[in-house]
Amino acid sequence: MRARDLETVSDVLFWSTLALVAATTAWTIWRTRGKLSLAVLLPLAWIALIPIPVILRPITKSEVFVDGFVGSARDSMYVAIAIANVAFAAYQVFLWSPWYRRLERFAVRVMAPAGIREHTSGDRLAQRWLLGLTIVATAIAAVHLALMPRIPVFDLLTGFTNPLQPNYDRELSLKLLQVPSIVRYIFQWDKQAVFPILFAAAILMRSRKLTVFIGVFGFFYAVSSLEKFPSLIFIAAPFIAVAVRDRRPLWAPIVIGGVALGFLGPLAVNQGPLISTSVHQALNIPPAASSVPASYDPNAAATAGCTTSSSEVLRFDASQLLASLANITLRRTGAVPAEVTYGWFAYFPAQHPYLKGSGWEPWKVLSSGYRNPSNLVGLWMYCGHTVTLPSVSAYASAIADGWGEFGMLGVLIACIAVVLAGVVFELLGAFRGNPLVLSSYAVTLLLFSTLPPRASVLASVFSSGMWLIPVICLLVVLSERIRGQRERVLAFEPAPS
Length: 497
Fold this sequence. Notes:
By secondary structure, this protein is mostly helical. The protein is built from 21 helices and no strands.
């Protein structure tokens, strides 16, 4: 097939399937009256983060791929997006169908044969679960903070002479932390999944002391490494949990306000170094000496031709707050996922052969010395740009991940995996009478609806901690079942004579 013909076919597939998934999403929103569910949020986030930025690419500016999305990489990406559009439309149709209703009733019958019990704030079993999980999560977080060479958020208090110091410490706080890979993943799961669940559950259960403790310590832990996304999930989770409990629609003020408030966390992380520099200069406080890791030594051999450059020290400027917020919401959240997705299609197989499934083998990913393909693509995309570290990673969407593994077959496998995971995670909503399960479902809505457009299949399910959420819910529901069986036994025991 000629290049021109392939471009025409890819355009037709892209636009026709986009119309399809847009129609099924609109129908789902109308049919459910905007009820918060993965059936609504997963395709909606996909449309907003991948197809729309791809359409708007000709009018958006970027230092990367200045010529836009072109050539065979562009055509392959359009076909892959079309496959994903059909997958998400099929996902919605399945969730409408009687087959899903039967599956949901079967899950409830197996896990909660006595019915789903509505909980009150004084439920002792739920409180014990909340307290126990809080103790475990806090202990893991304390170990993580103790192992960090320098806690990045403390750089804002002590100041820094090297403007790249917070970037160095952020990378060393988790990605390059000198511990086994599985330990780094446990820290990531704790921060990104468990603490938001606990915060939302504490609020739903009206546990004031735990709400204050988890709110303060959990938020500190979320921003400790100066990552933006964990703080957004942590802040927004309670709002989404309350909205799901009260059956509020997608456009309810509590939903819009909660997500908007959640962006204050990333904004604070973004502006923190600038505020720190301005305060130290205004008060003539000498900043702490910077410590450059050996792996980032400018005098060391460059990694794959990528050198670390120091940017000019900038000060806080209140007039730039809106511009910074727009950068976070419109560029980093909106435009970058599509840009990185194209980067993967341009990198594989033109620059690197397909991975043949190696990126989907957890035992290989967890092995020491594993070279993450997102790092390979990141170095290829961003080298030569401002503040590019050798550990830079271009985390891509599920379709880009599938393309890097097996080409178009990998895209199909990735879409099937995302849809199947989405069905499992949506089943959590059937047990939301329990506050911990309800909080877990709220975090699932926030995490999983936004992960496939910006993370690989393995990251969407494993690295993010999503796999842990159904496990926690399963244990909570099983404990409910055991309690119910004991209560029924006690109710039928004869009174002592």
